[in-house]
Design a protein that fits this description.
Helix content is 34%, strand content 25%. The longest helix has 18 residues.
């Protein structure tokens, strides 16, 4: 008789776990409380617009992405390397000359960072290129800002480029996040691309769900697990409409629900949040960023503005430009949507004084209070192992690795392997 396993949660970690468990011969049922799988990686459509939940991108070089996804089938639309640094009345490009030779001259001309900073960036790229991804998560830790100082980067570089750019990745413009996250993502950006699927980020979850179903897993959506009981010979899973005893359970919910279900006190429950607002700008030309995101070097609200339909034309009708803006911090979570939109109009008008943005219309506002778990220096040593969920219960979530798509997928695979080894 095959072992029976319930996976609780249909985010990326749960979907990856379900697939590998089913591939290993287990009888797998996945329960997802929402009507669709994907967790935070979902996409909504609105009158011809493709609106990802929050601003997320796929780093194609992540090892788990390479293992788990069929990237060709996702029909990716790629961002240009680097970014456009913007402040009132001024925009300049800073790009990796090795990844985007066409932008080399523009990058050399920018005065937002020093020439020494540009040379150190190339040296950093070379240094990280010699290291494995696993090694980067084991190296001695400090904050991103302190580590940049140790490397000799100027405060100008940290404040004008790294703070808004990594504010978008870590949701922490202060750069107090673990430098391991910086090194890992910097290497990934050097090794590959940042991209979105033509059908939206939700296509990633749909592909993983299809792979799990093809492997034999049963995926049940709209069914919440309300209780988990851990027994000596089995685990009991109680849902809105069912109760079943199984050999093992993989808890692949968010951090806070996982801590509640399992009682595991090493699951990090302190989160950082953000707000992403999506806009249509009718009858508008592109913002002339060359498929790069715009970094706010003059202020912090919004942190970034992204020309989504320039990167992925499928995201919007032909007669409109689709943009999104991301705001960081607790204050943004409490700010009225119309006020956020007004801030974006004011910011864009300052960056592009020759253009008009009165017609910028909000389409959707995503408020995500727990977008990532907090990752201060040294946090990774305190994270739980996939076997720390209790008797017959395993953990699958980015909170066993690090907060990222990479962490979620890698954790799902590790949890599945642990179950298959133990039963």
């Amino acid at each position: 008789m095959s072992r029976s396993v319930v996976v609780i949660g249909g985010g990326l970690a749960g979907l990856v776990a379900a697939r590998h468990l089913a591939d290993g011969g287990a009888a797998v049922t996945l329960y997802e409380a929402n009507e669709t799988v994907g967790g935070r990686v979902t996409t909504n459509t609105d009158d011809g617009y493709t609106l990802d939940r929050g601003f997320q991108v796929l780093f194609t070089a992540y090892p788990a992405v390479q293992r788990e996804l069929d990237l060709a089938a996702l029909d990716l639309r790629r961002f240009s390397p680097g970014a456009t640094i913007a402040r009132p009345g001024k925009r300049s490009v800073l790009a990796d000359p090795l990844g985007d030779p066409g932008a080399a001259l523009a990058s050399l001309r920018t005065d937002e960072v020093t020439t020494t900073d540009k040379l150190r960036t190339l040296a950093l790229r070379q240094d990280l290129g010699t290291r494995s991804y696993d090694e980067l998560l084991r190296r001695p830790d400090t904050s991103i800002r302190e580590w940049l100082r140790e490397w000799g980067f100027s405060e100008q570089y940290s404040n004008n480029f790294i703070a808004p750019f990594y504010g978008g990745i870590t949701l922490d413009r202060s750069l107090s996040t673990s430098k391991r996250v910086f090194e890992y993502t910097f290497k990934a950006l050097s090794d590959g691309d940042s991209a979105v699927p033509a059908e939206g980020m939700g296509a990633i979850a749909q592909q993983l769900a299809a792979a799990a179903a093809d492997a034999g897993a049963t995926i049940t959506t709209g069914e919440a697990v309300t209780e988990l009981k851990q027994k000596r010979r089995h685990a009991v899973v109680v849902t809105d409409s069912d109760r079943r005893a199984v050999d093992a359970v993989v808890v692949a919910t968010g951090a806070r629900p996982a801590a509640r279900l399992t009682g595991c006190d090493s699951i990090p429950t302190e989160g950082v949040g953000c707000v992403t607002q999506h806009y249509r700008l009718p009858d508008a030309d592109d913002l002339d960023t060359g498929r790069r995101l715009l970094l706010n070097a003059g202020d912090s609200a919004p942190n970034t503005v992204v020309p989504m339909s320039t990167v992925a034309p499928e995201y919007a009708p032909d007669d409109a430009l689709l943009l999104n803006a991301t705001f960081l911090g607790d204050d943004a979570l409490e700010t009225d949507s119309q006020q956020l939109a007004a801030q974006t109009r004011e910011t864009l008008s300052a960056w592009y004084p020759e253009r008009r943005f009165a017609g910028l219309e909000p389409l959707r506002t995503d408020r995500i209070p727990f977008a990532q778990f907090a990752q201060p220096p040294g946090v990774h040593e305190s994270l739980p192992d996939v076997r720390d969920g209790g008797r017959r219960t395993y953990l699958a979530g980015e909170y066993t690795e690090w907060s990222s798509i990479q962490g979620a997928m890698a954790s799902g695979r590790a949890a599945a392997q642990a179950v298959l080894e133990d039963y």
